Amino acid sequence: MSWQAYVDSNLVGSGKVSKAAILGLAGGVWAASSEYTLSTEEQKAIVNGFVKPDTVQASGVRLAGQKYFTLSANPRTIQAKKGADGAVIVKTKQAILVAEYNAPIQAAETTPIVEGLADYLISVGY
């Protein structure tokens, strides 16, 4: 399956993710929803957020120009919120899954979708 298919089918296609991207840990966007652009600075900040979760916990995270308040951050998952909307960001061995959701969808609906794909990618070496 192509990286774009994971974004289109597994994440956005679930109905629980509004827009998504898959980033490489070494840099670069592997796939993304149409018109969903994460700047190079945003990508670097996300990667660094997994290296130093306390930094992203204190300053929040920017996704496609929008600032999100970080609810929790650990070496695997960053949960963020912006009003009624939010984001779930999960790190695998080689990639980072970035998934945004819009109200009325809740984090409890989106998180298992993103975590499940992350677990699968880890199981196949990514």
From TrEMBL:
<dbReference type="InterPro" id="IPR048278">
    <property type="entry name" value="PFN"/>
</dbReference>
<dbReference type="GO" id="GO:0005938">
    <property type="term" value="C:cell cortex"/>
</dbReference>
<dbReference type="Pfam" id="PF00235">
    <property type="entry name" value="Profilin"/>
</dbReference>
<keyword id="KW-0963">Cytoplasm</keyword>
<dbReference type="GO" id="GO:0003785">
    <property type="term" value="F:actin monomer binding"/>
</dbReference>
<keyword id="KW-0206">Cytoskeleton</keyword>
<dbReference type="InterPro" id="IPR027310">
    <property type="entry name" value="Profilin_CS"/>
</dbReference>
<protein>
    <recommendedName>
        <fullName>Profilin</fullName>
    </recommendedName>
</protein>
<dbReference type="InterPro" id="IPR005455">
    <property type="entry name" value="PFN_euk"/>
</dbReference>
<dbReference type="GO" id="GO:0005856">
    <property type="term" value="C:cytoskeleton"/>
</dbReference>
<comment type="function">
    <text>Binds to actin and affects the structure of the cytoskeleton. At high concentrations, profilin prevents the polymerization of actin, whereas it enhances it at low concentrations.</text>
</comment>
<comment type="subunit">
    <text>Occurs in many kinds of cells as a complex with monomeric actin in a 1:1 ratio.</text>
</comment>
<dbReference type="InterPro" id="IPR036140">
    <property type="entry name" value="PFN_sf"/>
</dbReference>
<comment type="similarity">
    <text>Belongs to the profilin family.</text>
</comment>
<keyword id="KW-0009">Actin-binding</keyword>
